[in-house]
Design goal:
Blueprint: H1 3-12, H2 14-20, H3 24-36, E1 43-44, H4 45-63, H5 72-80, E2 87-91, E3 98-102, H6 104-115, H7 125-141, H8 146-168, H9 177-218, H10 223-239, H11 241-253, H12 256-270, H13 273-277, H14 287-356
Antiparallel strand pairs: 1-3, 2-3
Helix pairs in contact: 2-6, 9-10, 9-14, 10-11
Amino acid sequence: MDFSYLAGLKRSHPAWRLLAADHAPMIVAFLHAAFVGPNVRSAPQHALASSLDDYLERLRAEIGEGQFPRSGLQYLEAWAGNEQAWLRKYYQAGDDEPWFDITPATEKAIAWLASLGQREFVGTESRLKIVFDLLRQLSEGTEVDPDARVAELLKRREAINAEIQRVREGHIPVMDTTQVKDTFQEMASTARGLLSDFREVEQNFRSLDRAVRERIATWEGGKGELLAEIFGEQDAIRDSDQGRSFRAFWDLLMSPERQEELGDLLERAFALDAVRELGPDRRLLRVHYDWHDAGEVAQRTVARVSEQLRRYLDDQAWLENRRIVQLILGFPRFLGHICYAAVSVRSASSSLSAGVL
């Protein structure tokens, strides 16, 4: 976090540009309402432009007709340009209409602005418990001494047996209202954070996809070298910490038992009186479906990379087969040229010999 690093961020990072933009309040408010708030991953151009036009009309009626002179579509095009990079504009398969999604940098800026608001309740107990739980997982998960691991398991079993005995005796510990609110808010924050993380995962996979397309289009070397490089990048992404974590998350999420358990737990949490006092966003009840949708986007991006490789291989195979056919078809002509050349050489040699004699 030195001066040169921060100066570079100010010059080039889209999140900084968004926070410093003249119309930042309008831009952030609209993008939050269109994407972040309702957990929308992407929107078609006509619907998003229409929503922005309506939003701008309401703002002009409130603060003055001379404000925000452009149309909704013009603003969207500007926000998706390289100069701003607050939106990603792309085309879905089989659809001629452009679609838009916010970039990870935009989502970070919106999340930071949202965190500046004063919260009525700030819980700390649940975060402390999470710290302890994570440290225990690190300690237990890296322990290689069998005796130490067995001793820890026995310790946990004794604690569970003691708790069972206390419950049987009628001593049932129950979270108070403060603890319930604290724990629920921490869960909600983590759940929303996962959706934000997915945009970064998608962006990384899209970057790989774009790099593959560019390399295929401009490659001048051998096919084997190109494929080795591309497959090496794919392996690096798949075997990276992010790639392994994503696969583990996806496998866990796709488990029907886990999905059912998560749905039941969310329903039970929202039914608690202390949680209802918080007025939570009911859309959290389906956050696991939002995770699934976001994960599918990342999976489709990976599939697109594989499809590019398959097409490249098919194109190369076709070119090589065509070259072989051309050589085969041209072989008789090639033999004729050789025979003609041989006859010509022999005739010339005979004439030369006759002249010498």
